[in-house]
Amino acid sequence: MTSLLDGYDRSRIALWLAAIALGFVLAFVIYAYVGTFVLGLFVYYITRPIHRRIADRIPTASLAAAVSLSVVALPIILLIAYTVYVGAFQLAAVAESADLQPVLDALQPFIGETNAGTDPQAILASLIDDPGAFLSGGAASALGEAAVPLLGYLGAFGNALIQLFVVLALAFYLLRDDHKLAAWFRAELAGETTPTCIYLETVDRNLKTIFFGNILNAFAVAVLASVSYIALNLFAPDAVVIPSPALVGLLTGAGSLVPVIGMKIVYIPVALVLAIEAVLANPALLWFPAAFVVVSLVIVDTIPDLVLRPYVSGRDLHTGSVMIAYIIGPLLFGWYGLFLGPLLLVLIVHFARILLPELVRGEVVTASASAGNPFDPDDDIDAREPEPVDPDVDAPARDRPPPDVDVGHPRPRA
Fold first, then answer.
1. How many domains does the chain have?
2. pLDDT at residue 121 above 60?
3. Tally of CA atoms within 13 A in the half-sphere of 84 that contains its CB
């Protein structure tokens, strides 16, 4: 009795099993950090057009990749840092104007009878002179309780820094060595004109359009927000105005790139500051912070997500499909769904165009797309428009009148 493995090198079975096991390990790592990897791909694609322009003018590939990342990422990081600084400064100003004596009275039992008051230098001197008396007042337990959330924040901050490093490292090495990786894949695995190679090249071109469109969307949001806030300031009362509306608009555009929160990281703190100013000046002026929130939510936040982002992010894809990918992605996967949703859309659409028709028909898979793209508004697919509905012709048989009956003038009974 012959076996299916007759004539097959059985030693290759172990190698294939090892390859499958390593593939599962790689898939698990990507699954565990899918947000980090997808964000790294996003940074790579938004940086690649700039990198291609300056790579010929910089002597080394590593330096070109580093400069490209700095040109794209550094301005955004500086804008976000400036936003945090302004928010912290305004929060400190509000804290100084508020009455903090009840808070100090609540902390007094934990300080103990040190006669140090609340002056930090006096507290430090008391700790050095008589640490036993200082700690006997319960300060040690208070510090321990305060250290628990602090350590949690430090852990989250450290984890964010590590993931940010992985994102930048992934984008850096893809920018530097993407051509080598593509050449190795063509030479060793797929070939130059195979269906798999053509499919991946098409996906690569489309991802560059979609991901780079996010930056264009950020610029569009910045312009729209700046114009809206400057116009809104024309109707602002003297006691409550938007501070530096053009700068707030630019920061809002940069905030649109922040996962999960988006541009709300900018206009919600500004709205809170405006509300506090209105309450302190005249509660009747609260209409202006409310108008600011409505303009920010409807004009600045909603319109770009529903209109501008699909147009600038996917010119060769159906507007509705791109919009649905941007909406469903974050709802289904979380913050990284903003990038994973369009990625899955591109993979599915081009698989259906290039590979699926031949697979369904049982034909030889070719490198050319035999099917049109129903999600491409410029693809002329031979599809007849539906004919107008004739109520007499298209009605069910039981609802049709007899052929010899005049509907308008029924025959008299005999």
1. 1
2. no
3. 7
CB 301 within 8 A of CB 263: yes
Task: Give dist(CA 381, CA 263) in Å, integer.
Answer: 39
To 10 degrees, the CA torsion angle through 319, 325, 326, 331? 150
Of 378, 411, 406, 375, which Cα lies nearest the Cα of 392? 406
The Cα–Cα gap between 119 and 107 comes to 13
Determine the structural domain holding residue 209 and report its residue range. Answer: 191-379
Closest CA to 166 of 213, 344, 346, 158: 158
With residue 230 as reference, give the H or E element that holds it.
helix 195-233
In a 13 Å sphere around the CA of 176, the CA atoms on its Cβ side amount to 16
Does residue 211 lie in a domain region? yes
pLDDT digits (tens, 9 = 90+) for 273-298: 899 988 888 888 889 999 999 999 98
For residue 114, give the DSSP letter.
-
Identify whether 268 is part of a domain: yes
pTM here is: 0.63
Q: Is residue 119 part of a domain?
A: no
**295 in a structural domain:** yes
User: Residue 242: is it exposed, middle or buried by C-beta count within 10 angstroms (0-12/13-18/19+)?
Assistant: buried
At 171 the three-state DSSP class reads: helix
